[in-house]
Amino acid sequence: MVGFRRASGVLIVVLVVMTTTIANGTAPDPKGGKEPGPTGATAPVTATAPGAALGAKGGSLDVKASGAKGDGTTDDGPAFMAAWKTACEAGGTITVPKGEYLVNSVEFLGPCKGPVTLEMHGNLKAPATVKAVKEHSGWVNFDNVADFTLNGNGAIFDGQGSLAWKANDCAKTGTCNSLPINIRFTGLTNSLIKGITSKNSKLFHVNILNCKNVTFEGIGIDAPPESLNTDGIHIGRSIGIKLNGAKIKTGDDCVSIGDGTEDLTVENVECGPGHGIAIGSLGRYPNEQPVKGVIVRKCIIKNTMNGVRIKTWPGSPPGIVSNILFEDITMDNVGTPVLIDQEYCPYGHCKAGVPSKVKLSDVTIKNIKGTSATKVAVKLICSKGTPCTNIALADINLVHNGKEGPAVSACSNIKPITTGKLIPAPCTEVGVSGP
Ligand SMILES: *[C@@H]1O[C@H](CO)[C@@H](O)[C@H](O)[C@H]1NC(C)=O
């Protein structure tokens, strides 16, 4: 986790104005500044006009008929854009036959006049060259589309990021957002995305922002552990997102959940290598919206730095995290399987010692089993200024097999409500419990 420099104040103001048109005044920069914000290209989300959908029934369009070569060397971006334009004008299906389609940055922009389906049987490939892009922009972008279906059939979106990771010097400079995010979904409503894999992204793999009622199924994320800032799936300022079924191997958080996320379900996700499944970081910037109603369940987390965690910055403006459930999760050799960290401060980019004002309440952590790679398996560090309330632990069995002895819990500013069998023993007071 590296601190990122934000865009200039002037740019932020512009982004706020653009964002408000689609997201009711949400903050410009979730996820501690590394969060990809909106691109400039945002128009209001408009549901398909009822009349337009009825009259317009587009047929099926083959990208090869629009001029795509699929030979892995020709830039097929213009052909994809041409097919999209036609489909978007009436609704219809774009088919992508088998092949390797090299595309430079592409934007599939709505609103469209009828439902559009992208049916893929081939793979997309980005140029490997490292070119600085506008902050927070993406390689493949889907913007402001309603009733959209992406049927990947296993299609790979290969960002060819290995050169970019070597060039990524954000640990030194504090700016990492000038590399493209692999796939961005911005302002989608009532849509279904399934059967795609994001591979070797230059920066984040998949970013979901300002979306409403979108389901993601059968998603693959694939990058080596040493890839930098390659968060798997980031969700922010979105309502009613379902992520059901994902296999995520990457160099940063597998799933990260930013401000303004409500009514999110994450299920059947396999994570590792990576940094785990995280809510946050939150509280780095003003005007962050609450995170409410998040369910993470039936996941397997393996060989990762963390398991499930909530992280907020010290010295933060007020914020809210409530109604969170982490349930039925298997940990296999995970650094810190259960972690609340309200003193999250990577690289010292915070006002350490000033308590976080992000309020955590109604969090249930239930049926978590497996192995912890370190002795402190359950670590609950809440804010001194705004202690956590109503945090429930139930049926936890986390084993540590190390020379340091069995697993323990550590906590501060929290009195968890405990039920069922808990290994390690919970701490009820500030301090460390267990043998
Ligand atoms: C949510 O989106 C799906 C398409 O994925 C659609 O079938 C469903 O009707 C939508 N639900 C609502 C409440 O609009």
Strand-pairing-aware structural class: mainly beta
Bound molecules: 2-acetamido-2-deoxy-beta-D-glucopyranose
N-to-C CA distance: 32 Å
How many helical stretches? Answer: 5
Number of domains: 2
From the 3D coordinates, which CATH architecture of the largest domain would you assign?
Answer: 3 Solenoid
Q: Which percent band covers the strand fraction?
A: over 45%
Backbone shape: elongated
Using the coordinates above, name the CATH class of the largest domain. Mainly Beta
Mean pLDDT: 86
Active site: 275
Region (Disordered): 24-46
Family: Belongs to the glycosyl hydrolase 28 family.
Pfam family, one: Glyco_hydro_28
Description:
This is Polygalacturonase. The active site is at 275. GO terms for molecular function: hydrolase activity, hydrolyzing O-glycosyl compounds. The protein is mainly beta and 435 residues long. It folds into two domains: 1-259 and 270-275, Pectate Lyase C-like (3 Solenoid); 276-342 and 349-435, Pectate Lyase C-like. 10% of the residues lie in helices and 46% in strands. It contains five helices and 28 strands. It has helices at 9-23, 50-55, 77-90, 162-167, 170-173; strands spanning 60-62, 71-75, 92-96, 100-102, 106-109, 116-120, 123-125, 138-143, 148-158, 181-186, 189-199, 206-209, 212-222, 233-236, 239-249, 255-257, 262-271, 277-282, 291-302, 306-312, 319-334, 336-341, 358-372, 376-381, 389-399, 408-412, 417-423, 431-432. The strands form two sheets. It has a 16-stranded parallel β-sheet that branches. It has a twelve-stranded mixed β-sheet with strand order 5-8-10-12-14-16-18-20-22-24-26-28. The chain is elongated, with a radius of gyration of 22 Å. Mean pLDDT is 86; it is low at 1-56. Bound molecules: 2-acetamido-2-deoxy-beta-D-glucopyranose. The site of 2-acetamido-2-deoxy-beta-D-glucopyranose has 5 residues, from strand 11 and strand 13.
